Amino acid sequence: MRILGAILLTLGAGVAVGYLLYWFFSAVADFIPLPLKIAIAAAAVGLILLILSIVRERYKPSEEEEKIKEVRR
Predict the structure, then answer these.
(1) Where along the chain do its domains lie?
(2) DSSP state letters, 3-58
(3) What's the whole-model pTM score?
């Protein structure tokens, strides 16, 4: 149930962020130069990648935890 909830939360947040970015860029498309649009999109993608890497590292067992499990057996 937790995994399903996390997946739904992630998908919902992703859709909301995507829609907000689309709305932002379509509303002010004439006022923002192209390099700035690209920079904003790159920063957003970078932030998402950093968050995903942190989550992945958090749930991935470390090598020390694997050694401890082997010793306890």
Answers:
(1) 1-29, 32-73
(2) HHHHHHHHHHHHHHHHHHHHHHHHHSTTTS-HHHHHHHHHHHHHHHHHHHHHHHHH
(3) 0.54
List per-residue pLDDT tens for the chain, 73 residues long: 778 888 898 899 889 988 987 887 788 777 888 888 888 888 888 988 898 888 888 877 766 666 666 666 5
End-to-end CA distance of the chain: 29
Longest CA–CA span in the chain (Å) reads: 65
Cα–Cα dist 2/37, whole Å: 36
Say if CB 41 and CB 21 are below 8 A apart: yes
